[in-house]
Amino acid sequence: MKDKIIKKATDMFLKLGFKSVTMDDIACEMCISKKTIYKYFVNKEILIEEGTREVHKEIHDTINLIIAKKHNAITENFEIRKMFKEMFKSTDTSPAYQLKKHYPQIYESVLVREIDECKSVFKQNIEKGIAEGFYRESINVEAFVRFYYTLIFNINETIKSEKEAFELELFALEYHTRAIATTKGILELEKHLSQTNI
Predict the structure, then answer these.
(1) How much is the pLDDT for 96?
(2) Which domains does the chain have, with CATH numbers?
(3) What is the number of helices (H) and of strands (E) in the chain?
(4) Rounded to an integer, what is the distance from CA 182 to the centroid of its chain?
(5) Which residues, 6 or more positions from 160, have their beta carbon under 8 angstroms from its beta carbon?
(6) What is the reported pTM?
């Protein structure tokens, strides 16, 4: 039952907003008593924390599956972007924006988890792209990991609309890729941009 509550509550939080969904709403949606929810979660904040942990795990499990498919580095980034679009397609407000605004402590704990994993994914992608000849060998990998991470996280925590954030992320991906790409990489980027619907 605990897992079912986390799943349903997280779906509702992402779709309707962390702030607006109440414990009553979740109980009503699941046709259970509020008492049942409180048996597992002493308050809404604990439920949000559990939910964000599950979303974090799901995101990184899916990213690992994408990486395992051995796409080239540029294709990999577009596949990861596609995954985020699917995962948050019913979300109106950026989850990161909501968390930072309404539950800053939970947001900080999410950031602690995300920083290292995201930077690791970005670093692996850049190193892979260099090995494949899509990115320039001369770049400072650590610096570009930090640049891209800062861009992406700033978009997500400051832009309220998930749709607008997603559009800006495409521009950030293009900006990042053009900054580090070889001629071969630019051609690959242009191919993906021509096939991408914002």
Answers:
(1) 81
(2) 52-195 (1.10.357.10)
(3) 10, 0
(4) 27
(5) 93, 94, 97
(6) 0.85
